[in-house]
Amino acid sequence: MVFTKQPFIKLILSALDPHNFDTLREHLTREITWPSVYMFKFIAPAENRIFAMLHDLFPQQADFTNRHSAGGKYVSITVKEMMLSADEVIERYQKASAIEGVIVL
């Protein structure tokens, strides 16, 4: 199966739709008892600058796990952190989505 760049870009942009954050907020409020440890997932180009920008969004005690793609061009980043509310999770995702090249999962 061959994917073109244009549909992939549309997928990324649609994932950043504010409505999706509202849907996530509703789900998190309904399904999770706060405070709770939340697991964030991101995919980004394997660049130190981007990793540093993501790292700066979280406190020092957050647990980071990185996994590089087979070709080494991308890295998946998982972060676990104690969060106080669904709104706090959404705020963190919004800040991460503003970093160029970062895909929020």
Question: Quick summary of this structure?
Answer:
The protein is globular and about 40 Å long. It has helices at 5-15, 18-31, 48-55, 86-97, and strands at 36-45, 63-68, 74-83, 103-104. It is built from four helices and four strands, in the order H-H-E-H-E-E-H-E.
For this structure, the CATH topology is: Alpha-Beta Plaits
Which strand order does the major sheet show?
2-3-1-4
Q: Give the radius of gyration.
A: 14 Å
Order of helices and strands: HHEHEEHE
Distance between the termini: 22 Å
How many structurally independent domains? 1
What is the number of strand segments?
4
Strand content: 25-35%
Description:
There is one protein chain. The chain is α+β, with helices and mostly antiparallel strands and 105 residues long. The chain has one domain: Alpha-Beta Plaits, CATH 3.30.70.2040. It is built from 4 helices and 4 strands. It is globular, with a radius of gyration of 14 Å.
